[in-house]
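FAQ: What does a ligand-bound record look like?

Like this one, built around flavin-adenine dinucleotide:
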Amino acid sequence: MNYDCLIVGAGLSGLVCGIRCASEGLRTVIISGGMNALHFSSGSIDLMGYDPSGKVIQSPCRYLKQLEEKKPGHPYSKVGVKTVRESMEFFKKQCGLAGLDLHDNGEENHFHITGLGTMKPSYFSQKSVFNDRLKEAYERKDPIAVLNFDGFRDYFTALTLEQIRGLPLLRGVRITTGKITLPYYFRTERNLHEFRSIDLARVFDSEKYLPRIADEIKKAAGGARIVGLPAFIGIDNFGWIHRRLEDMTGLLIYEVPTLPPSILGMRIDRALKTRFADLGGELSAGDKVFGGEIIDGMLDHVHTENYGSTRHRSRFYVFSTGSFFSGGIRSEFNKIEEPILKLRMSGSQERSKWYSESFFDKKGHPFLSYGVDTGKTLNPYGADGKTVKNLFCVGSILAGYDPIREGSGGGVAISTGYYAAGKIISARKKADLA
Ligand SMILES: Cc1cc2nc3c(=O)[nH]c(=O)nc-3n(C[C@H](O)[C@H](O)[C@H](O)COP(=O)(O)OP(=O)(O)OC[C@H]3O[C@@H](n4cnc5c(N)ncnc54)[C@H](O)[C@@H]3O)c2cc1C
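The answer part, i.e. the structure of the complex:
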């Protein structure tokens, strides 16, 4: 197999990279071994939510300009603010083309309600999670009902209520909770208490149940104007179903992220994979890259578990294999490594230095910013310390940032994936002209 670009890992960063490469006509393949972090995420995209003291950032791009000077090793500083901006526009457009509309707040963060009832700063949210009409309704102090489905165990309205009542934006607002009882015809042979969000999302996807669900929502809302529901308003037809439910109930309905599996994250995953396929990209799912060979500073080929000794070749390669969570970085008792090529890592190999004593330490845990070390152009270094010129590392495999403390995971994945694609496209164009 000969490709222009071979990407390892179909998470947010690999998919963005693949879509951009394929959209420029490059022969692109993504090989991916398992589920990505989107299936566990809130489904909102965080660009930069908090500064090192924990203070909320209103305007992430303005903040990133300062970061370029203060932290040149941060992935955002490497790709530059201009690329970050462009990448976010690109991502929004690609999601829109696949039918997933995102809300933004110009270049400012917006604040949406989480499953725990807190307000979280994000750059993009799905329109069923946050939109301008909801913002106005919150500001008008319209009454809110936080609803759950009877028997659904992955969402806790009592917990949400306790938190949400303390939010400054909602001070003085009447907030109630309620339960929606599933009509008898939803019941299957399975125990109702085994239902997960994915089962319920499938129920919502079917138009025939909507009138009954709408009646139940109206009843449970008890006079509230805004209704929060756990996020499973459909997995295929979500935009249409959300609008239909709002029309049928006359209420403003917002979705709240629940425990995994995350329906909101799965929508992004599906949208990006659809775009990649539409553009002619090839996805080899369920296969794992386990090794490869670097010859004279260039990655020559990689091997996968399904094809054993077959050499998969490409002009350029991208590792978007994620962090510890997805196996892009692996830890053993006293060792942290990148498992495919043993690329140079940034971070201590001494176990006692990986974590802070207190779980809730304000400084976070050092291991969260460990990862593969790269130069400014995101090319990593091989085990011999030499740059691998035709390989780029993107997303959460990268060192130099803490996605949890900063609230920056989605933004780093998108901007670095987009950046690497840009480098590959221009190198490919230069080679064509030569
Ligand atoms: C629980 C959780 C919640 C989060 N919530 C948010 C949020 O609300 N907002 C936000 O902006 N960010 C959030 N993030 C961060 C953000 O989702 C991630 O930073 C981002 O999605 C990472 O994307 P990625 O492409 O780098 O890696 P991943 O999504 O981890 O994808 C890596 C992929 O590579 C595959 N892979 C690994 N090794 C191999 C191999 N050898 N061969 C083939 N395939 C391989 C994996 O199976 C996986 O599919 C969250 C992260 C987690 C873990």
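Follow-up question: can I read anything off the structure? Yes, for example: The pocket of flavin-adenine dinucleotide is lined by residues 8-14, 31-38, 40-42, 44-46, 288-289, 320-322, 325-328, 340, 395-396, 403, 409-410, 413 (CB under 6 Å).
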